[in-house]
């Protein structure tokens, strides 16, 4: 129904954002690590409108591949939007795709709310779909950009710039591999 919203980000919380599009404020449900846009600036949020028996909600994502993965994941029986957001808080679309294709049950079941059986079910139902999906080139960023984006996200979530900088340094200093933006923000929030 809605492909994306382009407007001014006027509110950004842990679970939702509000985007003013020509005087109309749209409340968009998000994962804590999804949006790292600065407040009071124009942004584009890719959306998924979910209608269930007892609710309707608009979910927002920083890019189209994340939104597309969310829509694929919530079509697995027993997986709802809440778990879909948890998956996107822990994985980039490419990393999730790789975990499914390589049958990495342990990695997938590390998502809060997912057990081993559910992870196996996700692999069984999504492997053939995700194997056809190309890697998204938009996910490859220089690590310095991740640090700047993480800083912006943490400041929008209530950190001072100094506290955000320290949290990012603490999270990334002991990691030998490159961390994705979502991982940096999530770990910084956990260690707050």
Oligomeric state of shown chains: single chain
Indicate the CATH topology of the largest domain: DNA polymerase, domain 1
The tally of structural domains comes to: 3
DSSP, total strands: 5
Judging by the overall fold, what is the CATH architecture of the largest domain?
Orthogonal Bundle
Average pLDDT taken over every residue: 83
Account of the 3D structure:
The chain has 192 residues and is an alpha+beta fold. Helix 6 (143-156) crosses helix 7, helix 6 packs across helix 8 (181-190) and helix 7 (161-173) packs across helix 8. It folds into three domains: 4-61, Beta Barrel (OB fold (Dihydrolipoamide Acetyltransferase, E2P)); 67-137, 5' to 3' exonuclease, C-terminal subdomain (DNA polymerase, domain 1), CATH 1.10.150; 141-190, no CATH class. Helices cover 44% and strands 19% of the residues. The protein is globular, with a radius of gyration of 16 Å.
Summarize the structure.
The chain is α+β, with helices and mostly antiparallel strands. 44% of the residues lie in helices and 19% in strands. Helix 6 (143-156) packs across helix 7, helix 6 crosses helix 8 (181-190) and helix 7 crosses helix 8.
Q: What topology does this entry show?
A:
Blueprint lengths: L3 E9 L3 E6 L2 E6 L12 E10 L4 E6 L2 H10 L7 H10 L2 H9 L3 H4 L7 H15 L12 H14 L4 H13 L7 H10 L2
Antiparallel strand pairs: 1-2, 1-4, 2-3, 4-5
Descriptive terms for the model:
5-stranded antiparallel beta sheet; 44% helix; 192 residues; OB fold (Dihydrolipoamide Acetyltransferase, E2P); alpha+beta; globular; single chain; 3 domains; DNA polymerase, domain 1
């Amino acid at each position: 129904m809605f492909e994306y919203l382009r407007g001014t980000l006027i509110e950004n919380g842990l679970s939702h954002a509000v985007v003013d599009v020509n005087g109309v404020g749209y409340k968009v449900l998000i994962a804590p690590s999804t949006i790292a846009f600065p407040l009071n600036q124009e942004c584009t949020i890719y959306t998924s409108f979910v209608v269930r028996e007892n609710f309707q909600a608009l979910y927002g994502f920083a890019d189209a591949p994340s939104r597309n993965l969310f829509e694929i994941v919530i079509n697995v029986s027993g997986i709802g939007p809440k778990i879909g957001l948890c998956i996107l808080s822990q994985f980039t679309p490419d990393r999730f795709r790789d975990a499914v294709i390589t049958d990495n049950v342990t990695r997938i079941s590390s998502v809060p709310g997912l057990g081993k059986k559910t992870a196996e079910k996700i692999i069984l139902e999504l492997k053939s779909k995700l194997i056809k999906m190309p890697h998204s080139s938009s996910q490859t960023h220089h690590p310095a950009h991740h640090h700047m984006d993480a800083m912006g996200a943490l400041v929008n979530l209530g950190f001072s710039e100094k506290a955000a900088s320290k949290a990012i340094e603490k999270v990334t200093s002991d990691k030998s591999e490159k961390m994705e933006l979502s991982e940096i923000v999530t770990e910084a929030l956990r260690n707050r």
